[in-house]
Amino acid sequence: MLSERQAKILKVIVSEYIKTNQAVSSKRIQELLNIKVSSATIRNDSATLEEMNFLEKQHTSSGRVPSTKGYRYYVDHLMEFDDYNESLKENLKSILFQRGTKIENVLEQASQIISEMTKMTAIVTKQNLNSELMVKKIDLIPLSETMASVIFILSNGEMQNQLFNLKDISLSDLSISIKIFSDCLVDTPVKEIENNISLIRPNLETTVKNYDLILETFMSNILQTKESKKEIVGMKNMLENPEFNDTDKLRKVINIMENMSPFDWFDVSYSSNQKMIQIRTKIGEEISEDLSDISIVETAIKTEQGSTMLTLVGPKRVDYSQANQLINLIVEIINGDDHKNE
């Protein structure tokens, strides 16, 4: 953990760099800090933060900018949220619900608002359950001493295949797990599987090692049977960021938005603020070594028809506080109105 003064310096640098896209000098840090401290102390603390990989220098004589590690520390420990006044919340509610109360319409409108305010591209991915689809058969096929395949056959004839590394999970444990899955889930509608997992978990826990890994892999595979629809909104807003003047970088970002599933992005270990609605953030190299200047912020919203993922994609130098607050506010509005309609 950082000292209180180091944390304040890091916070100032992150906040100022987000606003200006310019490296932050020691003189500017001193102007912005709300504590009295000498310029020599600021230089020493900044150098220490750089040695700890929280900061980077773009040039030898320049000020400093946040690294991925610095942004991560800021998001997890230093990010603060302004209190949105009630008039803004009411204004957003009136905009969002003027097209009706369907969550699909609300999120479509919300994604446009958030994209305009954050200068990030918004992606709304809807994953609807096929109410008639059922699991018909689950088979285990050993392939070698180190690999095995589990095959899922669905009522529409679709077959899915999942490979397991037997160095992580024994063939015996995998076999027991598949027997439990078959006994409890065959002829079960896909839409009910998530609810039925609570019945399976205690049995797995007492009989199988690494049962969480098996269960997680099974669920991520079987839930891919949902029908997905993705809409990308506000690309022009993201292009206002100077980071995307680089054509090669822009091409990589467009490729990840078009080809990766946000439901995969959401499966990360970082949570930006545990007190808020669950919002996930991935920064720079946490996404990919090739996308070191990119950030992803998102949340999942459950509906009766399935799930909807609201994802924001932008530069690493993004206002994480604003993005988190807007997503949180939108979800609060949606949940609040859902409760009123029940």
Strand order of the largest sheet: 7-3-10-9-8
Note the quaternary state here.
single chain
* Percent helix: 40-55%
Specify the CATH homologous superfamily of the largest domain.
GAF domain
For the sheet with most strands, the description reads: 5 strands, antiparallel
CATH A-level architecture of the largest domain: 2-Layer Sandwich
Count, helices: 13
Strand percentage, roughly? 15-25%
Helix-and-strand structural type: alpha+beta
What is the mean pLDDT?
81
Parts with pLDDT < 50 across at least 5 consecutive residues: 267-276, 337-342
What's the overall geometry?
Answer: globular
User: In the CATH scheme, what's the topology name of the largest domain?
Assistant: Beta-Lactamase
Cα end-to-end separation: 45 Å
Number of strands: 10
- For the CA atoms, what is the radius of gyration? 24 Å
Order of helices and strands: HHHEEHHHEEEEHHHEHHHEEEH
How many discrete domains? 3
CATH class of the largest domain: Alpha Beta
Family: Belongs to the HrcA family.
Keywords: Repressor, Stress response, Transcription, Transcription regulation
Function: Negative regulator of class I heat shock genes (grpE-dnaK-dnaJ and groELS operons). Prevents heat-shock induction of these operons.
Protein name: Heat-inducible transcription repressor HrcA
